[in-house]
Structure formats: structure tokens, C-alpha cells
Amino acid sequence: MPSIVGRRLVRLGTVVSTMDEVEALARAGEPEGIVVVADEQTAGRGRSGRRWSAPTGSSLLCSILLRPPVPPDRLAVLPLVVGVAAAEAIDAVAGVACRLKWPNDVWIDGRKVAGVLVTARTGAAGLEHSVVGVGINVNVPPTEVIDGATSLLTATGHLHDRERLLTVLLERLGTGYQAFVVAGGRPDLRAWRSRGALVDERVTITVGDDHRHGTFRGVDDDGALLLEVDDRRVERVVAGELTRGPVRRADG
Ligand code: BTN
Fold it and tell me: How far is the CA of 37 from the centre of ligand 1 (A)?
């Protein structure tokens, strides 16, 4: 069966954000599966209101429209499904082993090579659509890679074909998305778990000004992070920033 993801592909030069382009198409009634890919974003967006920047023509910047027929509360798992597809595509094309930092950052050797942003619009009838954004640092030169990040060029020492990476990403996402829909939004998360970074390590979860410490015990079937706190209780965390070890406070 041909994949829904990528059934239509729109290539653009400079946009504000591919998220906006796809959101506009969604509101105009576009069927799911369309992909917008751009060479440059003037205001690319990341999670938690952060910016996502990439030198022109250096990266894979795309957004995909999905209309999953699942209850809105199942959407929390979708970012993990997308993270797996991005990691598999990078492994296959660049031949590097990637891990996933909850919920969906793709890491090479502890540095972020790709990020995933998922937005959703709900109405009276439930979930109307979701826009999935993927940014992969492909040929960003080492001198332009920001702190804590990497690129495929930096990690492997040679350039990579963005077109091939897009093709494989859409294939993997097509497969993952189909499994997600068929399972009613309760897909098997083994592929995520096998790539999960920091599992069984001491971590901090930051939610606003609140820092929670414990041992990361993986994810449950809803995609929530499982944090074992010091009295052995396991808390579920549905949103937050995961970092290795205890957070260093400015006030000591
Ligand atoms: C993150 O890790 O914070 C998510 C980053 C997502 C970036 C991509 S690039 C393509 C798409 N357009 C955007 O403005 N953001 C996503």
C-alpha cells in the first residue's frame, strides 16, 4: 500500500517556518500527507517556544500534515513515533547510530542532531489535524553548530544527500504513522525504547521553575517519562525538559 506520508511534496526556498505553511494548507482543507520542505526558515520554531536556526541550504527542514483518526489524548505518542522515524532515517542514510532523548530529540554521541515539533488543532469533533515538523542538521559545518548540538557533516566528516534523507524519512514515517493509526494511537514503542538515551541514569526533569530529580526508567505506553524518585516511587511525567544528572543552580 503506498504511504500517505509524502503523497504530495511542496518544495520552497525561503519561508518563515514550514509549520506555518502546512498549518495554512490544513486550514484550507488539504488532505493529510502533504509535506512542505524548505531551504531556509526566517523564524524556524523549536519546542518550548525556542527558535530553530539553520544556515541556508544546510539542513533538512520539513513539516507534514497528518489527520490521525485517533482520540486527541493519543496524540502524545505521535512525537515519539516521529523521533523513531528520524533516527532510523539518519542511521540508514548516514550510517551513524542515533539515540533518542525523551521525548524526541535525536542524539549522536550525546549531541542533538535533529528535533521534532508536533502541533495539533482540536475542535468540537475532536482532533482536526496535526502538523509534524522535523529539523535535521545535515551539512551544517562544525564551525556553525551550536553548543550541545551536532550535524551529520560534523559527526561523519563528509557531506550527506538531503534529498535521500528526506525520501527515507518519509518512508519511515509512513510506516510508523500507519502502525500508529492501525493501533488506534497505541503503537508498540519498542523501537523507541531500544534507542532511548539516559535510561537508568540520574536525570533532572525541568518544568518551568520546577526541577525534579530521579532515575529515568523509560517510557510508558502513553509516551510519558517514568521517573523513579528517591523513595522508589515512579512518577509519570508528560511534559518537561530532560537533562542528565542534577541541574546546577545559579545560587549554588
Ligand atoms: C525542537 O527540537 O525543539 C524541535 C525542532 C523542530 C524544527 C523543525 S525545522 C522544520 C519545522 N519548521 C519549524 O519551524 N520547526 C520545525
Answer: 12
